[in-house]
């Protein structure tokens, strides 16, 4: 590409300036845009924003990264789906006439914008400035109105979430944010995988990775105030960032010495991590030679497929529940006792709870675990329950799917099964009767 005389003159003048001149700036204003060769830095020099390219590619972007930690990780990219040419050295990031942050190419064509015009009148655009905070948030503010935020990058994440950042529905902005993976490791444009907060009705929230924002690919399990139930080796220590890769794998990274990235945890490291690996009413355990097994009281829906290692069809119940046989659809009065034909609960120890959980409220604090059980047993639509510390009572009324049994961590889940499947009730009475007969015989022998 031939450079015109004006461009060559600009490069010549720039080469004569000291290297540190204008290299780092602390704000972007209407009179001082960000240009090629400059970076916007946070007050404590933790984060940096500027122009970059990937692997000598033909495209150029404006992005944000940790200033002193390597290898460099771009935690946010403004124009990820609208790159500019690497050869365009006159592109600028500026405050536009309407108060929006705007990326324009060398011909002054708008490439990317925050579209914040509804919040700022043209008469007050001179008071707008953009800053980079030490938590990695790129913010446009009205400096006259006590620094009131007009727009912030935390509300529009890319493939990465920083420690003080949140994704999900924002009741103030009425906007739901989520992570979108890159198309490839060298192409930041939007890929097919997203990481987003679970369904709006779920309490507490969970993270779900989806393909094309529809098909579930991985699920974290509910948040229990310090970690996700489905991530047993996660703790509440500070992490530097979480991101989703172009293959849909989510990971947590940290920088122990503040200089180099290290992997702390990555999802989808075993076949049980994939959503619904064993289908409805199946349990996945990665340490077993055959990773999928049906729950107690269930059998494979298709024995032929199951024997070939296709477990996605899941399992079906062997014995009808007592609850289902009753026309009244009640299994036991709330304060009553169970009889021999009532349903029972089978316990799974240390697992990720199934998807589609419901949170039960209004419990007496001292009776919570027992009340959780009684409430489930008294409701014929309740198929399982779990009492989780820091959460409370969770119940399930839909097919139980995406259960993973861990070697450590997880919670205990109680699955509703027919009494017959546990070998309880009448057999216990029979043992008691035989014991009584034996005692009578022994007494008769003594006499």
What radius of gyration results from the CA coordinates? 30 Å
> Largest sheet, order of strands side by side?
25-24-32-28-33-30-31-29
Ends distance: 116 Å
Number of E strands: 33
Helix content: 10-25%
Structure report:
With 447 residues, this protein is mainly beta. It is 13% helix and 33% strand. The chain is built from six helices and 33 strands. It has helices at residues 5-16, 303-307, 322-325, 368-377, 419-422, 426-446; strands at 24-25, 34-35, 39-41, 47-53, 59-66, 74-77, 84-85, 92-95, 101-104, 110-113, 128-132, 138-142, 148-152, 160-161, 168-170, 175-177, 179-184, 187-197, 207-211, 215-219, 241-244, 250-254, 262-266, 282-284, 292-294, 298-300, 315-317, 344-352, 358-360, 384-388, 392-396, 403-405, 411-417. The strands form eight sheets. It has an eight-stranded mixed beta sheet. The radius of gyration is 30 Å and the shape is elongated. Residues 6-21, 327-337 and 425-447 have low confidence and may be disordered.
Quick overview of this protein structure:
It is built from six helices and 33 strands.
Keywords summarizing the entry:
single chain, 447 residues, mainly beta, eight-stranded mixed sheet, six-stranded mixed sheet, 6 helices, 33 strands, disordered C terminus
């Amino acid at each position: 590409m031939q450079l015109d005389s004006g461009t060559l003159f600009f490069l010549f003048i720039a080469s004569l300036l000291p290297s540190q001149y204008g290299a780092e700036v602390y704000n972007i204003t209407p009179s001082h845009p960000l240009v090629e060769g400059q970076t916007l830095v946070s007050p404590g020099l933790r984060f940096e924003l500027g122009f970059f390219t990937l692997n000598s590619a033909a495209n150029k972007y404006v992005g944000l990264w940790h200033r002193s930690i390597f290898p460099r990780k771009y935690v946010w990219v403004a124009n990820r789906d609208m790159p500019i040419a690497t050869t365009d050295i006159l592109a600028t990031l500026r405050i536009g006439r309407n108060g929006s942050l705007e990326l324009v190419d060398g011909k002054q064509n708008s490439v990317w914008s925050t579209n914040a015009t509804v919040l700022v009148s043209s008469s007050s655009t001179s008071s707008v400035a953009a800053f980079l905070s030490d938590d990695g948030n790129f913010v446009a503010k009205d400096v006259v109105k006590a620094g009131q935020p007009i727009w912030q990058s935390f509300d529009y994440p890319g493939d990465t979430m920083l420690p003080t950042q949140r994704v999900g529905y924002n009741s103030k902005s009425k906007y739901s944010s989520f992570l979108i993976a890159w198309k490839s490791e060298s192409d930041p444009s939007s890929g097919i995988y997203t990481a987003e907060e679970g369904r709006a009705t779920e309490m507490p929230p969970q993270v779900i990775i989806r393909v094309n924002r529809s098909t579930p690919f991985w699920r974290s399990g509910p948040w229990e105030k310090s970690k996700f139930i489905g991530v047993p080796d996660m703790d509440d220590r500070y992490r530097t960032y979480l991101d989703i890769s172009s293959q849909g794998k989510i990971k947590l990274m940290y920088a122990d010495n503040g200089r180099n990235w290290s992997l702390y945890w990555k999802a989808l490291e075993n076949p049980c991590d994939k959503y619904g690996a064993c289908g409805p009413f199946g349990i996945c355990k990665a340490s077993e030679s055959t990773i999928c097994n049906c729950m107690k009281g269930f059998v494979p829906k298709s024995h032929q497929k199951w024997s070939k290692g296709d477990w996605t069809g899941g399992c079906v119940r062997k014995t009808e529940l007592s609850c289902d046989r009753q026309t009244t659809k009640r299994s036991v009065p709330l304060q009553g006792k169970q009889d021999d034909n009532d349903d029972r609960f089978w316990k799974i120890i240390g697992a990720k709870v199934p998807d589609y959980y419901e949170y039960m409220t209004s419990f007496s604090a001292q009776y919570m675990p027992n009340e959780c059980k009684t409430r489930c047993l008294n409701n014929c639509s309740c198929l399982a329950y779990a009492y989780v510390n820091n959460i409370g009572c969770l119940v399930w009324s839909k097919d139980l799917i995406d259960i993973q049994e861990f070697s450590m961590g997880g919670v205990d889940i109680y699955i509703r099964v027919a009494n017959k499947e546990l070998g309880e009730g009448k057999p216990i009475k029979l043992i008691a009767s035989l014991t009584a007969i034996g005692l009578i015989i022994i007494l008769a022998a003594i006499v």
